[in-house]
Every structure is written in C-alpha cells, then in structure tokens.
Amino acid sequence: MKEDFPHLGIAVLCGLFGKTRHAYYDFLWRKESNLIKEDIILQEVIAIRKELPRVGTRKLHYLIQNKLRSHEISFGRDYLFDLLSEHKLLIRQRRRNVVTTNSRNWMRKYSNLVKNLVVTRPEQVWVSDITYIRLGNQWGYLSLITDAYSRKIMGYCFREDLSADGCIEALNMAVNNRLYYESIIHHSDRGSQYCSHKYVDLLLSNNIAISMTEKGDPYENAMAERVNGIIKMEFNLYESTLGFDQTKIKINNSIKSYNELRPHASCDYLTPNAAHLQSEKLKKRWKNYNRSFNYQNSLV
C-alpha cells in the first residue's frame, strides 16, 4: 500500500489541475529529453570553440545544425542565443583604442578605385590593413591582406614594429598564394607603409593596381577592418601573455582555422578557402537582427 501512495498523490495533483497522470510523466520525459538536447548542443559549442574560440552565435547555429541534422536535432537561432546566454557563453564586443595609420605623410596618395565596384570573382580586389596586439608592456603589429570576394587571408605578417617591412612580407605571401592571374586591385588606407616606395614598387612589379581611401574614412576600408576584428575577437588576440614568438605561432594557427573552418554569411556560408575556389556571385546570407543585448554575432 505504501508504494501506491506516491502514485495516488500524483494522480490527485494532476486531477486538481485537470491533467492526467500520463501527461505528468510525458512532461518529465520531455524535460529529460530537452536536457539531453541542451547538453549535446553545448558540447558541440565547446568543440567548435576549441578551433574558433569566439565565433558568433549565428555562425555556431549554422555549424551545429549541419552536424546534428543526422541526429534529427534542430533548433532556432533564438533558442541558441538564450541557451548560450543562460550558460554565459555569449561573446561580448570589444572596442578598438589604438591607431595604426599615419595618413599625414608626404608620399604620393592614390585614388579610390573600388568605390561602387561590384566584386564578382576571387583575386579581383585585395584589401589591406594593420592591427595591433598587446604583448605585456609592448605592442605587436599584424599586417593582413584579404581577398574581398572570398574573405580569405592571402598574406600576413606579425612584427614588433610598424615599419613597411611587415606589410611587404604580407604582400609577398599573398602574391605567392595566388591561384588566378587576372588583374588585381590592392586597396588600403593612406598609411605611410602602403605609400612607401618599396611597397608601391612591389605592387607595380606584379601588375597590381593601387587604390586607397580618399578621406580617411574607415568605412572606405571597412572589409579589412572587419577581418581585423574577427581575427582578434574570435581568436582571443586582443592581447597575449605568451610572448612574441608564441603569439606568432598562435596567429598562424588562428589564420589557418579562419581560412579553413569559419563560414562567412556574406559568402553563402562557405569557408574562405572554399569560397576562393568559386567563380560566380556568392549569395549573402546575413540579415540585420535587433536584440535587447549588445553581443558580438558577426555578419561577415
């Protein structure tokens, strides 16, 4: 009889709320099933962030959905936002506070050739920029050259100074990594590194047209700025306590993961390496989302 009391209590409680005992047990089963689903999703998030440490929620949603489709597990973006928020796994934005461009130099400036240009193929336009990484009591400077069509980082260099040598090394790497030999436009800000004779001569010797921002407006080189932000924010490279040499290794691994693993909504959710092999207009899969909190969820 004692064993029947708990069942009797549940039956009475269910009756008070107009529910059957079967509905109660069905609720418990769904709750357990949801907990298992949450655990599977969180484990996938942790696994992905081992290679893409601060990838945004929309990219995570795309990557995880593909992995779990065979297990018949599906969920929406809002569900993932709320789940990550509950477990404090959303990524907050960080602000840039160091200037790496000196456009007030005496060297020749070039016109903006990419204004209103529609990019339709890989290696049509390269965008370049320099960003900083804090190394204890000093700074390291990362020069990047990115393909505007595929978002692939074609060349990069990490140095302890802001000389043109870092930009030249990144450009040499980009030239060596070319897959196509049609005309290229190289677009940058008006920093002294990009205006230097050595850099300009290297561009011209490789038949690369030169384009620069005209008014110092960062939006004229927005894609390069965006890629800088992705590399630093999603791969924890705003600052490093590893020292210069180990930080350089981390940058190499991060750029490899960025090119090979990270999907871009503006490239039909292809990785940069995969997008670089395409030859047609890529579908943009991003939209503007309004949410009540200010978290990083990249659209690029």
TrEMBL record:
| Organism of provenance | Paenimyroides baculatum
A Gene Ontology biological process in which this protein takes part is:
DNA integration
* N-terminal signal peptide: none
- Span-the-membrane segments of this chain are none
Which terms does the record give in the GO molecular function aspect?
nucleic acid binding
Positions of the Integrase catalytic domain: 118-280
Q: Which Pfam families match?
A: rve
Q: Which NCBIfam families match?
A: transpos_IS3
What protein name does the entry list?
Answer: IS3 family transposase
